[in-house]
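A.,

Following up on our hallway conversation. C-alpha cells first:
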C-alpha cells in the first residue's frame, strides 16, 4: 500500500531527526560535565563548583555548574526531555508500521521459528517491556548499589537479549528488537529517574531545601548508561542495510561483539573529555571490528548439491508465470545462496526461493518491482513492462 510507504518514510525521517537531537544532547552534556574545571575563588564563593569557556558560532560562551543552585530559579529553565520522548515515540511507531503491520514479511522467519503474526507481535512487545522491567528492577535493587556487579548483570542481560531475539524472530527483526529494547531502557532512564530527580532538585532549590545527593547520583548513573548505549544503538538503527550481519549463522554473537566493541570505543571519548588519552582503546576497537568483519566474511564450506527438495506446489498458469519472473529477475540476489556477483547475502534478508516466500512477500515484490520500479537494481536483468503488469495482475487476484 503506497500510503503505508509514505507514512513509513515520514515517521522514519522524523525518528532520525529526533534521534540526532537526543544523541547529540547526550554527547554534549557528557562532554560538558567531564570538561568542567575548578573555577576561580570568586566563582566558588557564588556556589559554582565547575566552569567552562568555549568559542562557537562567532562568540564566546561561559558555562557554570552550581554545587547547589542559583539564588533564584530563572523563569526560563531549559529541560532536555522531549528529544528522548519524541525519539522513542517515533521509533515505536516505526516498529509498528514496518515490523508489526508487516510481521509476515519482516518479523517472522519460518526457518527460525514458525509464528503467527499475532504471536510475533505479542512476543515482540513482551520482549521489549519485559526487558525494561528487568533492568528497572535491577537498578532499584541492591545490584544497582554495586557498579561492578551491576555491569556484569547488564552484560548478561544484553547477551541473553541478543540470543533470545534471534531465537524468536528473523535476523532483521531480531536486531531491530534489540535496538528497541535498548532505546526503551534509555528513555526509561530519562522518564523514571533522570527527570524525577531533576524535578526534586529544582523544587528543593526553589524552596531553599537540602538536596539529597542520591538524586544527582542516580540521574548521573542512568545518563552514563545511556551514553555507553548510544553507539550500539546507532549501529542497530542502520543494521537493516547490512544483511551480512543479521543473516549470519551466529547473528546474535555478531551483535553482541559489535555492541561490546562500539561501547568500548565510546569509553575512549569519555576518558578524553577528562584529559585522559588512551589511543590504545581506539586501536583495540579497530582490531575488534576487523576481527568481526573477518568472522562474518570467512568463506563457508560449500556443498556439492542441496539434498533438500523443495515441496511441489500446484500452481495456476498465472502463478507459474509469476514464479518464472521471480526466478529470472530476483532469485539471483534474493535467495538463501545468491549467485549474483555483487550481493553474496540476500539484500534486506528478503529470500524468494520458494512459492511460500513469494506469497508472503507479495506486497513488497509488487511495490518495488511494479510501482516504484526500482527493482531489479538498475534493471540489470531487463524486466519488461509486461512482466511488471503481470505481477500487479497476480497480486490483485
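Then the amino acids I'd put at each of the 397 positions:
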Amino acid at each position: 500500500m503506497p500510503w503505508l510507504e509514505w507514512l513509513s518514510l515520514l515517521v522514519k525521517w522524523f525518528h532520525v531527526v529526533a534521534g540526532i537531537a537526543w544523541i547529540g544532547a547526550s554527547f554534549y552534556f557528557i562532554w560538558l560535565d567531564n570538561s568542567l574545571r575548578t573555577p576561580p575563588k570568586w566563582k566558588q564563593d557564588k556556589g559554582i563548583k565547575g566552569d567552562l569557556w568555549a568559542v562557537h558560532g562567532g562568540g564566546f560562551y561561559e558555562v557554570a555548574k552550581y554545587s547547589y543552585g542559583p539564588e533564584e530559579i530563572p523563569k526560563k529553565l531549559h529541560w532536555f526531555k522531549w528529544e528522548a520522548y519524541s525519539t522513542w515515540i517515533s521509533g515505536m511507531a516505526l516498529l509498528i508500521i514496518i515490523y508489526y503491520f508487516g510481521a509476515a514479511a519482516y518479523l517472522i522467519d519460518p526457518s527460525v521459528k514458525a509464528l503467527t503474526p499475532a504471536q510475533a507481535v505479542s512476543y515482540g512487545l513482551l520482549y521489549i517491556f519485559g526487558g525494561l522491567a528487568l533492568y528497572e528492577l535491577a537498578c532499584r535493587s541492591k545490584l544497582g548499589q554495586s557498579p561492578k556487579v551491576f555491569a556484569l548483570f547488564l552484560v548478561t542481560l544484553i547477551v541473553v537479549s541478543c540470543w533470545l531475539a534471534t531465537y524468536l524472530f528473523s535476523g532483521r527483526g531480531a536486531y531491530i528488537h534489540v535496538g528497541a529494547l535498548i532505546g526503551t531502557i534509555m528513555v526509561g532512564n530519562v522518564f523514571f529517574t533522570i527527570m524525577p530527580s531533576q524535578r526534586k532538585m529544582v523544587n528543593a532549590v526553589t524552596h531553599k531545601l537540602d538536596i539529597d545527593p542520591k538524586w544527582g547520583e542516580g540521574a548521573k548513573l542512568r545518563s552514563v548508561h545511556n551514553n555507553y548505549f548510544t553507539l550500539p544503538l546507532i549501529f542497530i538503527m542502520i543494521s537493516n542495510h547490512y544483511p551480512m550481519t543479521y543473516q549470519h549463522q551466529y547473528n546474535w554473537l555478531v551483535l553482541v561483539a559489535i555492541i561490546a566493541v562500539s561501547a568500548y570505543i565510546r569509553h575512549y571519548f569519555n576518558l578524553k573529555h577528562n584529559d585522559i588519552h588512551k589511543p590504545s582503546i581506539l586501536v583495540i576497537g579497530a582490531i575488534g571490528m576487523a576481527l568481526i568483519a573477518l568472522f562474518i566474511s570467512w568463506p563457508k564450506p560449500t556443498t556439492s548439491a542441496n539434498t533438500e527438495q523443495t515441496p511441489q506446489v500446484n500452481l495456476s498458469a498465472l502463478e507459474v508465470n509469476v514464479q518464472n519472473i521471480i526466478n529470472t529477475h530476483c532469485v539471483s540476489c534474493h535467495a538463501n545462496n545468491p549467485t549474483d556477483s555483487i550481493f553474496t547475502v540476500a539484500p534486506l534478508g528478503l529470500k524468494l526461493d520458494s512459492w511460500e516466500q513469494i506469497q508472503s512477500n507479495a506486497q513488497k515484490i509488487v511495490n518495488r518491482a511494479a510501482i516504484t520500479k526500482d527493482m531489479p537494481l538498475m534493471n540489470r536483468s531487463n524486466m519488461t513492462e509486461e512482466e511488471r503488469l503481470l505481477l500487479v495482475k497476480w497480486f490483485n487476484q
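Residues 24 and 48 are 25 Å apart (CA to CA). Curious whether your intuition agrees with the design.

B.
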